[in-house]
Amino acid sequence: MGAARARREVDDLSRSRGFRGGTECAENLHRRSSAGTYWLSAKTLSDDTRGSANPPDHPPQILAHHARVAGVELDDKAWAALDDDQRYALIKLGDSERPSHNLELALQEFLEHGVQTAAS
Length: 120
Known about the structure:
Elements: H1 3-16, E1 29-33, E2 36-40, H2 47-52, H3 61-69, H4 76-80, H5 84-94, H6 103-111
Antiparallel strand pairs: 1-2
Helix pairs in contact: 5-6
C-alpha cells in the first residue's frame, strides 16, 4: 500500500471516529486494510526527532557539495526558494557521505527554474 493511500485511510478513519485530523493522536487507533487488522499506537517523539523534521535555514555543507558534484549550485538563495518539504527531501537524499541515486533527479525537479549550474 502506498504511503499516500495509507495516510488517507488513517485520516478517514480518524474523522469517522471523531478525532480531529492531525491535532489529536488516538491511542491504539484500530485500522482495517486488505492486509488484515492491525493497530497504530501513538508515539511521543523526542525533541531531537521533532527538530530534525524542520530543515535548517542554510543547506548542509555535505548536501551542497553533492549538489555541486551533480552540477547544481545549492547556495543560500536557491535553498531559500525551496519549501520545507523540498528541503527535507533533499536533506534525506543527500546529507550523508554517500548520497541517494535519486538526489540528482530531485535537484533537477525542485530547482529547474532559475537555478545556476555549478559550471556557470
